[in-house]
Design brief:
The chain has one domain: ph1033 like fold (Roll). It is built from five helices and six strands, in the order E-H-E-H-E-E-E-H-H-E-H. It has helices spanning 15-20, 32-40, 97-102, 110-113, 124-135; strands spanning 3-8, 24-25, 46-51, 57-70, 81-96, 119-122. The protein is globular and about 45 Å long. The mean pLDDT is 95. It binds a DNA duplex (12 and 12 nucleotides) through loops.
DNA sequence: GCCAACGTTGGC
DNA sequence: GCCAACGTTGGC
């Protein structure tokens, strides 16, 4: 099983909406590196849900419900894909960007190294470290 | 509001 | 193929 992190501006699509809808197709990704990551996702992979811009915190855990399929919001024949995500559980406490940056276990976190990428891989030990911060 | 990082576009 | 111009993202 692999681990990932996806970003969303809460004003555009929030964790609360995601839970309310009991999951969604993760559409709208228009970056090749992010798309490549989407293509690597498999059902059961766990995904950290990060609120960018206004909140800057990991707020929940999602899981991949279905592998990548053509993004219905993109032109037919385009290279863009979407995966189905569904909520697993909110974090007991959000983990802020500042907390992530302050933790030595997360010094290699892709989110911190490539802040603009919206779909990022997370190492298992990094995933665990984030969960530990969420329950501290 | 500003700016750094970075991707894309288009002229040459 | 290079690079300047430009647009977008996201942190501060």
């Amino acid at each position: 099983m692999k681990h990932w992190l996806v970003k969303s501006e809460p004003e555009a699509y929030s964790w609360a909406t995601f839970v309310q809808e009991d999951g969604t197709a993760w559409t709208g990704v228009r970056n090749y590196q992010a798309r490549n990551n989407l293509n690597l996702m498999e059902p059961g992979d766990l995904v950290l849900f990060y609120h960018s811009v206004s909140e800057k915190a990991v707020v929940g855990i999602a899981e991949v419900a279905a592998t990548a399929t053509p993004d219905a919001t993109a032109e037919v024949g385009s290279p863009w894909v979407a995966v189905a995500l569904r909520p697993v559980q909110p974090l007991p406490q959000p983990v802020s960007l500042a907390q992530l940056k302050a933790d030595v276990r997360l010094s290699e976190l892709a989110l911190l190294r490539q802040s603009r990428l919206s779909v990022l891989p997370v190492r298992p030990e990094e995933f665990d470290a984030v969960l530990a911060l969420a329950t501290k």
